[in-house]
Amino acid sequence: MEHPSHLSPASFWAPEHVADPHAWVGHIPFAFWLVEAIRPRCLVELGTHSGNSYFAFCQAVSRLALPTLCHSVDSWRGDDQAGHYGDEIYEAVDCRNRNHYAHFSTLHRCLFDEAVDRFPDGSIDLLHIDGLHTYEAVKHDFETWSPKLSEDAVVLFHDTDVRDRGFGVYRLFSELSDRHPAFEFTHSYGLGVVAVGRVPDRLSGLLKEGSDRPARDEIRASYSRLGEAVLDHAVRAVVEAVAAEQGRELARIRSLQEGVHARLDEVLTGINALGAADEAYRILREECDNLVARLDSVGEENRRYAAEIVRIASEKGRIASEMGRIAAEKGQLEEKLDRAEERVRLGIEEGRRLSGLVRDQEAAIAEMQASLGWSLQNRARGLRDALFGRDGGMARGRAAMARFFRSSPG
Fold first, then answer.
1. Would you give per-residue pLDDT tens digits along the chain (410 residues)?
2. Mapping DSSP to helix (H, G, I), strand (E, B) and coil, where does residue 43 land?
3. Are 113 and 73 in contact (CB under 8 A)?
């Protein structure tokens, strides 16, 4: 059976990768057909997100054993239109790419403008633009990457059938359609196909039929139905996954319910045991109350002890101050005692000196007494006593004088 020019067995392949969001999933059958039709040497996608479009291209390249080099460029941070997300999206895409397509597929995690210089001019045969969808942004992407397109290049634009939320892809696609052969699918938010150079042979029929309304509608209807089938399959897979998850959740809930029932039985048994435990609890509560009262008493006693400790500490400080004062006075007294001892020592030395002088005087006196003058003086005293008597009697004086002279030597 001969297929229409816009269809081939590749159009009916089942995709190996479908992930949320599903906005591009309806175009996967056409992606399979397009890769087979133009067999690009270099394929570049600007804006990959979860990889529905990119891995459809890679699946076709792998299944057809083409020498195509595939490149995905995305920051994997999202934007205001697609929403923002974390690293988990990139990690999932990177994992699938490494496991299935690493020998011909490269992920460039960067901004579109940062990657453009990594490709030689005239090297890209298939460029898919699916980044920020404002008119200014998509026009900038197209014009920035145009020098990199080959003479047979085909450019795809997603979301050509969206005219709200600031989307402006339809405007650029309309402008390019006036200058280049083009075709637009209107399902799954729209996909624009533009041959910016020479039209590849397998693509010429599609682009020519695009100007014939009945043929264009047939092509659109064909791929819309194929896309719906893929999307329905994806939705069923999601539903089945959700159902399986719900089944696991229900099983978990039933297991929890069984655990709850078992726990209720334990609680009932415990309630019955509580009756016997009430008296023990009451006694324990009384003991606790008594203990609290004792603790309060101990607390009051501790407060008194604390006040006494404060008083003792204050008294200790006062005593320490008094001891300091006494120590100062002791120092002063010791200093005075040292001065008094010094004076006593000096007095003793002076007494010793005076005693020596007295001894010297006594010796001198003794020497004087032994001398002649002292002897004469003693005789004169004796004469006086003889003349006059000790009581002044004259007669006794004369007698004494006579005795004196008789007894005087020579």
1. 456 678 999 999 999 999 999 999 999 999 999 999 999 999 999 999 999 999 999 999 999 999 999 999 999 987 776 667 789 999 999 999 999 999 999 999 999 999 999 999 999 999 999 999 999 999 999 999 999 999 999 999 999 999 988 899 999 999 999 999 999 999 999 999 999 989 988 898 888 866 678 889 999 999 999 999 999 988 886 666 666 667 777 777 677 777 767 777 776 776 777 677 677 777 877 877 887 787 777 778 778 877 877 787 777 778 777 778 877 888 888 888 888 888 888 888 888 888 888 888 888 777 776 776 666 666 767 666 666 655 555 555 566 556 655 655 55
2. strand
3. no
Strands 182-185 and 191-195: antiparallel
User: Could you give the 3-state DSSP secondary structure of residue 185?
Assistant: strand
Residue 85: alpha-carbon gap to chain centroid: 23
Cα→Cα distances 44→18, 204, 388, 390, Å: 20, 22, 173, 169
- Cα–Cα distances in angstroms (integers) from residue 38 to residues 35, 42, 87, 125, 200, in the given order: 6, 11, 34, 8, 6
CB 136 within 8 A of CB 168: yes
Instruction: Please tell me the distance from the alpha carbon of residue 293 to that of residue 20, in angstroms, as a whole number.
Output: 68
The CB density around residue 316, as the number of other CB atoms within 10 Å, is: 10
Give strand pairing partners of 155: 127, 194
Segment (H or E) for 42: strand 42-46
**156 closest CA partner among 179, 185, 178:** 185
In this structure, what are the phi and psi dihedrals at residue 188, rounded to the nearest 5 degrees? Answer: 50, 45
With residue 78 as reference, give the H or E element that holds it: strand 78-79
Which residues partner with 195 through β-bridges? 154
Q: Which residue has 């790419």 as its token pair?
A: 97
The residue whose two tokens read 């196909």 is: 193
- CA 363 to CA 382: how far, in whole Å? 25
